[in-house]
Amino acid sequence: MPKQVDHRERRETIARALWRVVEQRGVAHLTMREVAQEAGISHGAVQHYFASREAMLAFAMDFAAEQTALRVNQGLQELGDRPHPRAVLRLMLTETLPLHADARATSRMSAAYVLEALHDENVHARARDGMLQGRALVEELVRRAIADGHISADRDPAAETDLLLALTGFTPLIELDVIRPSSALAALDQYLDRLFTTA
Amino acid sequence: MPKQVDHRERRETIARALWRVVEQRGVAHLTMREVAQEAGISHGAVQHYFASREAMLAFAMDFAAEQTALRVNQGLQELGDRPHPRAVLRLMLTETLPLHADARATSRMSAAYVLEALHDENVHARARDGMLQGRALVEELVRRAIADGHISADRDPAAETDLLLALTGFTPLIELDVIRPSSALAALDQYLDRLFTTA
Fold this sequence. Notes:
Number of domains of chain A: 2
CATH superfamily of the largest domain in chain A: Tetracycline Repressor, domain 2
Number of strands of chain A: 0
CATH class of the largest domain in chain A: Mainly Alpha
CATH topology of the largest domain in chain A: Tetracycline Repressor, domain 2
CATH architecture of the largest domain in chain A: Orthogonal Bundle
Helix content of chain A: over 70%
Oligomer: homodimer
Number of helices of chain A: 10
Structural class of chain A: mainly alpha
Largest interface: A-B, 52 and 52 residues
Order of helices and strands of chain A: HHHHHHHHHH
């Protein structure tokens, strides 16, 4: 079905243009017109692919989440069969931090979406669902690591999950050059060393 | 100097209106015209108090940082003489989280400012300076706590500081109702319990 593939590709091209608008010009410029300009296509063409600005934003956010998941899955394959849960968690966390161009784009998109969610309940619901799914994955991992003896049984799995997710707070510190990426990774490694009882 | 007091008050009124615009309508609406409308004054009056949109944003951000510092200082006074460093750190961290109306307003302003910083180097420099000052305060506290035996001497003060600052990552999780405020506080307390060797 070449037509449908083209449709999907075109929407992804528009989503990437939208990310660049967030990054280079700011959320104030997130209009269909400016995204069309950045993508090098007509305003009418963007309207053909998305019924509304909201639909365009929703697709760009879902696409950002998919791209992050893809990067994590690629990283998992490099870890081989039965990777240590510490390595899996480290990969999941580092791929959400703005440490390389692709992760920066999706991370900035997420930050913009959280701000949009404050005054748009559809965006709020969609962003919340995405984060809850991510949280469930991390909690499952933490619980299995406790059951397998990789994390001490006296740790509270829900609280440990929340703390791990909170460490995405390195993001603004890295974006504003308050903490170097290498320092963030070193701190994260010290954290994981204390969380895990096995290496 | 009643005139100067009035000038300052008027600027603070405009800054608070700006915070409400970020919160209720979104960063895309951060224009002098919309802030004037929210403040219930004329566009010309806002232009009288601020030479540019950038000057207005810079003041609103500085004012947000001042208000946060004020809340921390008020909290410190309630802790009495020579408070335990764990209580001081807990106060500093919780006042940056969106756990009550004032903290929500300043926290959302900060998040908007980080996004603005991505494409505006003046905002980047100002936001970075503010965060570096906050980081220095936390590191000083951590180093003193290690020297006084409240934190184990085998902890790396720079990495511990970075981890504590990263825990502001509870913010988007609370904003999107992924984690309840009580869960965030419980997780933070478990974290601090492990960091400190004395209570």
